[in-house]
């Protein structure tokens, strides 16, 4: 929330979404946010694709989404329990499609033009640092996504 408030006045006048852990967005909310955005930020627990119905995601057309930042792959005891309970109802192939590389492919096929995402499990603190670096470099300094990712790599 601190980062969102810090950059609220820079290019964020029309930011929409769900923040906090008050409730989980419905499938309809996910679809509405994804189809109407020019940029999308996911900062959450576990895998992004574990929150969205795969069959609906594959059928989506989201070419207006120029940039998607996926800061996921954070695990807590509670999130691990939730994902474990969810995964027992999925096939091995379905779970495999939720991995980072496969998620990138699905999002690209759906029309996302640029994707910045984690490849490995991380912590909330590390993702907060990444979000701060991304926000500062993209919105304040005006660097390109390539330049910004290169800074993250260092």
UniProtKB/TrEMBL annotation:
InterPro entries: CFAP46. One of its GO terms (biological process) is cilium movement involved in cell motility. PANTHER family: CILIA- AND FLAGELLA-ASSOCIATED PROTEIN 46. This is CFA46 protein. The gene is Cfap46.
């Amino acid at each position: 929330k601190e980062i969102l408030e810090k950059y609220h006045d820079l290019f964020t006048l029309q930011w929409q979404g769900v923040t906090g852990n008050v409730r989980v967005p419905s499938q309809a909310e996910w679809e509405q946010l994804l189809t109407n955005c020019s940029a999308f930020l996911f900062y959450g627990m576990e895998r992004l694709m574990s929150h969205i119905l795969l069959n609906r995601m594959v059928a989506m057309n989201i070419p207006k989404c120029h940039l998607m930042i996926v800061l996921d792959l954070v695990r807590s005891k509670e999130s691990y329990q939730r994902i474990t309970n969810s995964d027992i109802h999925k096939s091995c192939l379905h779970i495999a499609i939720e991995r980072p590389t496969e998620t990138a492919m699905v999002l690209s096929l759906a029309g996302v033009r640029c994707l910045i995402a984690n490849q490995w499990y991380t912590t909330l603190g590390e993702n907060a640092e990444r979000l701060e670096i991304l926000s500062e470099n993209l919105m304040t300094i005006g660097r390109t996504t390539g330049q910004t990712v290169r800074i993250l790599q260092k």
